């Protein structure tokens, strides 16, 4: 697990995330754990990961990582994210950009337990030849 603290000036290509932090006037540091493909597969198989897909319903319906639950970023409410003892919430999207935005929203709303995302998203999952559920 790669754990970093992103500062506003270090976001780089995540311009929308950077702008959101400025617009929302939230804490400038967001804890981010980048979950690897192998770590995600292992956690899903063991039941230690709750995978939350933040893409839109049409994207989710077209294909998703098996076991993922839908919480679209467009209507994202961090307080309704699951809280299950012994299970870590991991956010996912198409490429990793929206899941980072959702992490910022969750942490700004006090959900400090939500700090992990699958950095490569569906693109990495499909590229690795992993199964897709529809």
What are the low-pLDDT stretches, counting only 5+ consecutive residues below 50? 1-13
- State the helicity in percent bands: 25-40%
Mean pLDDT rating: 85
- How many helices? The count is 5
Q: So what's the overall shape?
A: globular
Per CATH, what is the topology?
Oxidized Rhodanese, domain 1
Rg calc: 14 Å
- Quote the beta fraction: 15-25%
Total strands: 6
Main pleated sheet: 6 strands, mixed
The named CATH superfamily = Rhodanese-like domain
Structural class: alpha/beta
Integer count of domains: 1
For the record, the CATH class is: Alpha Beta
Give, in order, the helices and strands: EHEHEHEEHEH
The span between the termini is: 28 Å
The CATH architecture comes to 3-Layer(aba) Sandwich
Major beta sheet, strand line-up:
1-2-6-5-3-4
Written account of the structure:
This protein is an alpha/beta fold and 134 residues long. The protein has one domain: 3-Layer(aba) Sandwich (Oxidized Rhodanese, domain 1), CATH 3.40.250. 34% of the residues lie in helices and 19% in strands. The protein contains five helices and six strands. The chain has helices at residues 15-24, 37-46, 57-62, 97-108, 121-127, and strands at residues 2-6, 30-35, 49-53, 69-70, 88-92, 116-118. Strands 1-2-6-5-3-4 form a six-stranded mixed beta sheet, sandwiched between helices. Helix 4 (97-108) links the parallel strand 5 and strand 6. The longest helix has 12 residues, at 97-108. It is globular, with a radius of gyration of 14 Å. The model is unreliable at 1-13 (pLDDT under 50).
């Amino acid at each position: 697990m790669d754990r970093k603290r992103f500062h506003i000036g270090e976001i780089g290509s995540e311009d929308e995330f950077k702008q959101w932090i400025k617009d929302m006037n939230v804490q400038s540091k967001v804890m981010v754990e980048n979950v690897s493909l192998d770590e995600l597969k292992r956690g899903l198989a063991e039941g230690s990961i709750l995978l939350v897909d933040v893409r839109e319903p049409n994207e989710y319906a077209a294909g998703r990582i098996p076991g993922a639950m839908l919480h679209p970023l467009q209507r994202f409410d961090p307080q309704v994210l699951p809280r299950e003892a012994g299970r870590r919430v991991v956010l996912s999207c198409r490429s990793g950009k929206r899941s980072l935005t959702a992490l910022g929203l969750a942490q700004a709303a006090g959900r400090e337990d939500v700090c992990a995302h699958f950095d490569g998203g569906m693109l990495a999952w499909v590229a690795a030849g992993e199964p897709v559920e529809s």
